[in-house]
Amino acid sequence: MSQSLHFFTPSSNITLPKHHSSLFTPSLTTSNRRFPVTTKHFTIKSNASSSSSDPKVLTTDNGTAEILSRVSQTPASSTDSSSIEVDSVTEAELKENGFRSTRRTKLVCTIGPATCGFEQLEALAVGGMNVARINMCHGTREWHRRVIERVRRLNEEKGFAVAIMMDTEGSEIHMGDLSGPPSARAEDGEIWTFTVRAFDSPRPERTITVNYDGFAEDVKVGDELLVDGGMVRFEVIEKIGPDVKCRCTDPGLLLPRANLTFWRDGSLVRERNAMLPTISPKDWLDIDFGITEGVDFIAISFVKSAEVINHLKSYIAARSRDSDIAVIAKIESIDSLKNLEEIILASDGAMVARGDLGAQIPLEQVPSAQQKIVQLCRQLNKPVIVASQLLESMIEYPTPTRAEVADVSEAVRQRADALMLSGESAMGQFPDKALTVLRSVSLRIEKWWREEKRHEAMELPDVGSSFAESISEEICNSAAKMANNLEVDALFVYTKTGHMASLLSRCRPDCPIFAFTSTTSVRRRLNLRWGLIPFRLSFSDDMESNLNRTFSLLKARGMIKSGDLVIAVSDVLQSIQVMNVP
Ligand SMILES: Nc1ncnc2c1ncn2[C@@H]1O[C@H](COP(=O)(O)OP(=O)(O)OP(=O)(O)O)[C@@H](O)[C@H]1O
Ligand SMILES: CC(=O)C(=O)O
Ligand SMILES: [K+]
Ligand SMILES: [Mg+2]
Q1: S-S: 395 plus which of 323, 343, 412, 428, CB 3.0-4.6 Å?
Q2: Where is the Pyruvate kinase C-terminal domain (predicted)?
Q3: Does 358 sit in the ligand 1 pocket, CB within 6 Å?
């Protein structure tokens, strides 16, 4: 039987339903029509450092007509279009499909033997990979260094902006490498030995090494041993010194370095292994490696508390000159769920690591945990990645199951910032096809969401800790609302640190957000945020000239055209401007 998967490709001329709003200020309601729009220029002048009771003055500045005429006088030919950097895939997408149809959900691919070559990496980048993840559980540092080098070269030579995420191994219990074959199959009733012994010579058949020295002491006869959260199950039948004999009760595939948990009377046993440090000595070496290589994100496995995140962040700050590596907390343990809010607050983002999470809590609790983590991250303005088994069957088959497509759709519908491929891209047979499925499903669900105008009434609590930050937040909330009500084509944000761009992304507006930043590393980091199209552009404190330049550069590359309606905000001059591209 042949199967094919059909997804709608968004057409270039989406006409969105009109809706009327009297939401914004009176001066705007007069121009609450899509075209033609006379430009309004709002400047929220603030004096954040003053503690006066009313430091905010909102002025509508009708002098913008003047600005506009000056913009239109700027000849496109006088500009150097090479001085703006955007990745070639986004550029092509914008040209082909227009603003409205760009993908908002970001895609992370785990790089492994199936995808580590330059051409394989390029195929993933062309397919929409925003972030390449390397998992330090597998491979040597030298292997990972070569992958990083190839991704960087790809970015330089081909104009991509793929960010690198390094994922630590952590101290949880896992199997060692299998001696010889890439995987082994355990059959029902077979007896396997799990051992903490080290082998010089070939090891006996059906023998698995375990990385945790206390393993043989901690397990008891009668315990249930789960590989990869239950993909294969064993019952402990006998302990002989360092060896633990187990009978297979649920057959399946044993993969190298698969996670191990053991259960007693229906509960996860968390004895001494719970005391192991979150960041092991080997992890610290890997972290040093990541800092030296200048990775963009470090994802920390099995985070238990905010303390470890704070510790790592100060370590990175002391070690790396610009301390611009973002720390992602992987939520994959009972402890991380208990301390969820403080962990997310301390981190620069989070990952719903459903693989190990599903080994620590009952599987049926994973979906609600996912929803909770995704929501909390958005509320706290942190990017969130939904990871593991999204398209597991595609490791072996070229089409996903209906259930997998539904799972991906649900993560997109929850408005997670990013989706991640694990084995599908690391060692599966169809990495490019799996990425295509993520991309098509994301585009389709996002379009559906916009068409249905499913603006969820999620409350976004204030996150700013200073008055200046509160102003930025208010500006972004208002700008996003205006963008939806006025059905603008794009939001532009000029942002030095990326913070203002993140605040716009957090609102999940209907239109894409063009984020202009002068730093390459900020640009790469913004790649993980929902709906942001990051550009590198050097800009000044003069918003007029920034806008003029941006319009000329983007027009010269065919990425915007006259008449497009744009709202621009900036953290340089805290302002909101509404205008048609001249
Ligand atoms: N660098 C690599 N070298 C060899 N195999 C790899 C590599 N990276 C991943 N893999 C393979 O891909 C599978 C899935 O990768 P992934 O990184 O998601 O592992 P995981 O064990 O699920 O994640 P984690 O260890 O973070 O919980 C691994 O089990 C491994 O077989
Ligand atoms: C990604 C990961 O670490 C997990 O799902 O367990
Ligand atoms: K890992
Ligand atoms: Mg994990």
Answers
A1: 428
A2: 473-572
A3: no
Model pLDDT for residues 16-40, shown as the tens digit of each residue:
223 322 222 222 222 333 333 434 4
461 pLDDT tier (thresholds 50, 70, 90): confident
Q: Is the same domain home to 428 and 316?
A: yes
Rg value, the chain, Cα: 26
For tokens 């070939």, name the residue. Answer: 202
* Residue 51: pLDDT over 60: no
182 lines ligand 1 (CB under 6 A): no
C-alpha span between 457 and 184 (Å, rounded) = 49
Atom of ligand 1 nearest to the CA of 144: 1
| Tens-place pLDDT, residues 191-212 | 999 999 988 778 888 999 998 8
Least confident stretch, 279-293, 369-383, 448-462: 448-462
C-alpha closest to that of 162 among 135, 116, 122: 122
Give the domain range for residue 264.
184-275
CA 516 distance to own-chain centroid: 19
Atom of ligand 2 nearest to the CA of 357: 6
CB-based pocket (< 6 A), ligand 2: 301, 330, 332, 353-356, 387-388, 422
Phi, psi at 240, each rounded to 5°: -130, 100
Pocket test for ligand 2, best of 422, 424, 425 (most atoms within 8 A of CB): 422
Tokens of 11: 């057409």
**What ligand has the least distance to the C-alpha of 140?**
1
Candidate from 134, 137, 330 with most ligand 1 atoms within 8 A of CB, to mutate: 137
Same domain flag for 33 and 119? no
- Regarding whether 545 and 473 lie in a shared domain, the answer is yes
- CA 557 – CA 551 distance, rounded (Å): 10
Residue 355 Cβ contacting ligand 1 at under 6 Å: yes
**How far away, in angstroms, is 356 Cα from ligand 4 center?**
5
In short, whether 392's Cβ falls inside 6 Å of ligand 1 is: no
- Specify the number of domains making up the chain: 3
- The pLDDT of residue 321: 72
Distance CA 60, CA 70 (A): 19
Nearest ligand, CA of residue 358? Answer: 2
Please give the mean pLDDT across all residues of the chain. Answer: 83
Q: Do 401 and 287 have their domain in common? A: yes
